[in-house]
Design goal:
Order of helices and strands: HHHHHHHHH
Helix content: over 70%
Oligomer: single chain
Number of helices: 9
Number of domains: 1
Strand content: under 5%
Low-confidence stretches: none
Shape: globular
Distance between the termini: 55 Å
Largest sheet: none
Number of strands: 0
Mean pLDDT: 89
Structural class: mainly alpha
């Protein structure tokens, strides 16, 4: 009978951090959330991301501490069961499962919608639903092949997207810096009230959603009690800096 157990000591630190970064999808966050934040808080986008980064940092700290004690694929279920009891653990486990389920469905629909628009501009009319179904099947296949394959694919695709955005950001900063000059307005309140900034911060929180993804690799990561906390910290820190830079640009 084929061994279907999770592979121990299978993933490196880089492959582990790829999980958290890919679920957060920083390139999609910059493409979709920034405009929503700007519609609420105007120029103060970078300030909003800074606030979100600090708050999420404290939330991430709890995941970091738990992962230093527990190495399990159960992630949040295990953490809440150990600290708050089985009833709360049961509830949190199902909530996280439903969250990931809806996240997968939404991501597939989003991919179908984007590709439908792409094909439309190319002269082909293909509905989004069949595309989404095909994408879901492909993702399912990769997830059952080998976790190392799926994490590396996520790392490559997200890495290329981030690199392209960073190149564009550098070009914009250089051109603006050498002409009109850079401004600190994105880091100022710009007469926004506390409630307005708080409303915009919600979109900032959404941009960090999924940072805890590496926690689910507790049984497959090499030295998980060291690498997973480090992966979560780096994912939140580096992605937060990326958000600050790109939102400022």
């Amino acid at each position: 009978m084929e061994d279907t157990r999770l592979k121990k000591n299978h993933l490196s630190y880089i492959e582990t951090i790829a999980m958290s970064v890919a679920i957060m999808a920083p390139t999609a966050a910059m493409a979709l959330n920034v405009s929503l934040m700007a519609s609420v808080s105007g120029y103060s986008i970078s300030l909003v991301f800074l606030i979100a980064m600090v708050v999420i940092g404290f939330v991430a700290l709890s995941f970091i501490k738990f992962n230093q004690y527990f190495s399990t694929a159960g992630s949040v279920y295990t953490f809440t069961t150990k600290s708050l009891g089985k009833k709360i653990g049961f509830l949190s486990g199902w909530l996280l499962f439903l969250t990931y389920l809806m996240f997968t469905a939404a991501s597939s629909a989003e991919t179908g919608s984007f590709l439908e628009s792409f094909f439309h501009f190319s002269g082909f009319k293909i509905p989004w639903l069949p595309i989404s179904i095909i994408c879901t099947i492909i993702v399912w296949a990769f997830s059952f092949m080998d976790v190392k394959i799926s994490t590396r694919i996520m790392l490559v695709f997200e890495g290329i997207s981030i690199a392209l955005i960073l190149i564009l950001s550098a070009v914009v900063l250089i051109k603006v810096g050498t002409t009109t000059g850079l401004s600190t307005l994105p880091f100022q309140t710009n007469h926004n009230s506390f409630s307005t900034l708080a409303q915009a911060v919600v979109f900032g929180f959404m941009s960090f959603a999924g940072f805890e993804g590496a926690s689910s690799l507790g049984e497959e990561t090499k030295n998980p009690k060291k690498y997973i906390p480090l992966a979560i910290a780096c994912a939140v820190g580096l992605t937060g800096l990326f958000y600050l830079l790109v939102s400022y640009v």
